[in-house]
Amino acid sequence: MHPSEEILVAVASGQADLPHRVMVEGHLDSCAPCRATLAELSAPGGALLASLPVAPPPPALWEQLRARLQTTPQGGPAVDPALSSFPLPEGARREMPEIGPLHWHRIPLHPARYAVLFRDHASGSALLIGHMPPRRGVPEHLHLGPEDILVLAGGYEDHTGNFEIGAWGSYAPGTQHRPVTEPGEECWTLTRLEKPNLFLGWRGWLQGLRR
Questions:
Q1: Of 41 and 209, more confident
Q2: Is the whole-model pTM more than 0.85?
Q3: Cβ distance 176 to 142 under 8 Å?
Q4: Domain annotation for the chain: domains and CATH numbers
Q5: Contacts with 122 (C-beta within 8 Å, 6 or more apart), sequence order
Q6: Cα(8)–Cα(39) distance, integer angstroms
């Protein structure tokens, strides 16, 4: 229930896209083993930087920092109003860009909903926030591309196991599943997608009509 070492290496080296960075930072808030692994992966880069000759930063850098400090409210950056009501870990909030008003999508004849927080145009991925009521199953669907998911609140289960708050799930292209949320608890998730999921049965037919 953790991000793969490949994803952690990408974050440590600065190669991960923004959706993965947001999700990994959110997962690290509650996962000491992954924090230790990421620190270990980052250590060689830190040692390399420490071994380089010391050079004074360009004067323009200090001016940029001074300007940013002057525009930052006391007590730290303000929380994006669009995110204030969501159970996002602090690590994820720090990585999130400013987002506009959210447009919620609903699954046909189902109470589950999701919204696209932002898209990373360089990688072609998107970060979604999802909400499911207690003890409801998301209709069975097919993953057309890779999917990573981070549980923010509540939990769900499927054929691969149980996913509680802070857990990370990964699904390969071609995976079919039907997640079911826990009784008595609504479930909030962050999801990184490269391609939309395809609902099966009559919902898939309706989904095709909406494209």
A1: 41
A2: no
A3: yes
A4: 5-95 (1.10.10), 104-210 (2.60.120.10)
A5: 17
A6: 10
- Top pLDDT among 108 and 17 is at 17
- In angstroms, the CA 16 to CA 26 distance is 14
What letter represents residue 118's amino acid? F
Average pLDDT over residues 31-58: 72
SS3 for the chain is CCCCHHHHHHHHHCCCCHHHHHHHHHHHCCCHHHHHHHHHHHHHHHHHHHHCCCCCCCHHHHHHHHHHHHHCCCCCCCCCHHHCCCCCCHHHHHHCCCCCCCCEEECCCCCCEEEEEEEECCCCEEEEEEEECCCCECCCEECCCCEEEEEEECEEEECCEEEECCCEEEECCCCEECCEECCCCCEEEEEEECCCCEECCHHHHHHHHHC
Q: Return the residue matching tokens 């919620």.
A: 104
Look at the block and give the residue holding tokens 């600065």: 14
- For tokens 């995976």, name the residue: 175
